[in-house]
Amino acid sequence: MPYAHITGWGMSIPEPVLTNEDLAKMVDTNDEWIRDRTGIRERRIAREDQFTSTLAVEAGIKALQAANLAPTELDLIIVASSSPEYIFPATACIVQDQIGAAKAGAFDLLAACSGFIYATNMAAQSIRSGSIKNALVIGSETLSRFVNWKDRSTCILFGDGAGAFVLQASERPGGVLSAVMHSDGSGAESLTLLGGGARYPATETTLAEGKHYIQMDGKAVFRFATRVMGSATKEALALAGLKTEDVDWIIPHQANFRIIETAAKYLKMPLEKFVINVDRYGNTSTASIPIAAVEAFEKGKLKSGDKVVFVGFGAGLTWGALVAEWTGPIPAKKQAHPEQYRLFARLRSWARRAIRFLEGFLSRREL
Ligand code: UT7
Question: Can you give the residue range of the structural domain that contains 277?
Fold first, then answer.
C-alpha cells in the first residue's frame, strides 16, 4: 500500500490589508475589543480582480513548484472552499484549466472551515488505495465578498487567502498517518450563508433580507469549537498510534486565539507547539491551515520528520483532524518556473477552445 506524502506547499495572500482601526471607522468596534476577543489585528481583502480561483491558482502553482511536479502529472485536484467562485462549474475545474493539469479530475469540496482537512484526507486515501499517484489540494477563499460590512459580530473575523498541498504516492513510510472527519447537522443554523442556493435563489427579497451574507451565532460556534478541537486531535493521534508528547506541531484552524488557547489547555500542551497567525490574516476558513503550515515551514519551524496535527472545525457543523509526518523538501531535479506552467496552461486552454469552436462550426455546416 503506497504512502501519501505531502511533498509541496504554497500560499497566496492578497496585498490589501484591513486593520482593526480601519474596521473601527466602518462599524461600532475598536482594536482593543477585537484583539481581546479574537486575537486578530488585521486581515487581507482580495482586490476586485482577484477571485477564489486566482488565489487558488497562485497557491497551487507554488505548491507544484515546491514538489517539483509538472501540472500534467496531477491525477486529482480538490478545491475546498466556503466561497467557491460559482455553484458550478467547480472552482477546481477553473484551476485545472489555468494550471494546465491536462489529465486531472477536479472537484470542489464543501465542509466549510474543516474543508482542507477533509480534502487532504480524501486525496491521501485515493493515493493509499492506489487509484491515483499525485494530487493537488487547495483551500481558497474570498469570504470578504459574503461579509456584511455593517455587522460587527462577523465582519471583524474573516479574511481572504489560499493555501495548497501537493500529495504524492511513495513506498517510503510516512506522510499522512491518520485522519478523522465528523459532522453534526443539528447545529447547522449556527453558521450559515443561505442565499444563492436552490432554496433561496437570488431575488430582491433574499437580497433585502441579507441572505447572501454570512450569519453566525458566535457563542454557539465558540462552545462547539472548544469542545471538538481537543477531542478530534486526541482521536486522530490515537488512530496513528501516537500520544500528545510525540507531537511536534499542532496547526489548528485559525478562527480565534481563545479557541486555540482553550484547545492547548485541554490537551495539556504548551501554546508554543501551536502554529498561530490569526493575528495577521483573521479567519481564512479552508485556507487557514495550509497558510499556517506554509509559514511554519518558511520560518524553519516545521522540519522533515516532524509529527504534525492539522485540526479544524466549521459550519455544517463539521470538524476533523489529520496527523502527518512532514515530508519536507524533496531534492530538486530541474525546477520549472511558475510562469512556464502558466504559459503552457494558457496555450493549452486556447487550443482546446479553438478546437471546440471549430467542432461547433463544422457541425453547423453539416446540418
Ligand atoms: O470558522 C468558524 C467561524 N466562527 C468562529 O470561530 C466564531 C466563534 N466565536 C467567536 O469567536 C466569538 O463568539 C466572537 C469573537 C464572534 C464574539 O465574542 P464573544 O466573546 O462571544 O462576544 P459576544 O458575541 O458575547 O458579545 C459580547 C459583547 C456584546 O455586547 P453586550 O450585549 O454584552 O452589550 C456584543 O454586542 O460584545 C459586543 N460586540 C462587539 N463589541 C465591539 C460584538 N461584536 C463586537 C465588536 N466590537 N466587533
Answer: 3-325
- The string of pLDDT tens digits covering residues 33-75 is 999 999 999 999 999 999 999 999 999 999 999 999 999 999 9
Is the CB of 256 inside a 6 Å radius of any atom of ligand 1? yes
Q: How far apart are CA 273 and CA 104, in angstroms?
A: 36
The x, y and z cell numbers of residue 275, run together, are 502554529
- Assigned domain for 365 exists: no
* Of 223 and 358, more confident: 223
Taking the centre of ligand 1 as the mean of its atom positions, its distance from the CA of residue 140, in whole angstroms, is 25
Return the number of other C-beta atoms located less than 10 Å from residue 273's C-beta: 16
Q: Which residues contact 58 (CB under 8 A, 6 or more apart)?
A: 10, 12, 162
pTM higher than 0.85, yes or no? yes
Assess whether the C-beta atom of 225 lies below 6 angstroms from ligand 1.
yes
Whole-number Cα distances in Å, 230 to 128, 236, 260, 272, 319 = 27, 10, 9, 16, 11
* Ligand 1 center–CA 280 separation, angstroms: 19
Residues 6+ apart with CB under 8 A from 253: 113, 114, 283, 288, 289, 311, 312, 313, 314
Is 226 within the bounds of a domain? yes
State the Cα–Cα distance between residues 190 and 236, nearest whole angstrom: 25
Q: Which residues are catalytic?
A: 113, 253, 283
Q: Whose CA is nearest to atom 39 of ligand 1?
A: 153
Nearest Cα to Cα of residue 289 among 163, 123, 137, 108? 163
Ligand 1 pocket member 221 (CB < 6 A): yes
What is the residue with the minimal CA distance to atom 7 of ligand 1? 218
- Here the CATH number for the domain that contains residue 65 is 3.40.47.10
In a domain, 361, yes or no: no
Number of domains comprising the chain: 1
CA separation for the pair 213, 192 (Å, rounded): 8
**What pLDDT score does 32 carry?**
98
Tell me if residue 282 falls in helix, strand or coil. Answer: coil
**Is residue 359 a part of any domain in this protein?**
no
Name the percent of the chain lying above pLDDT 90.
Answer: 89
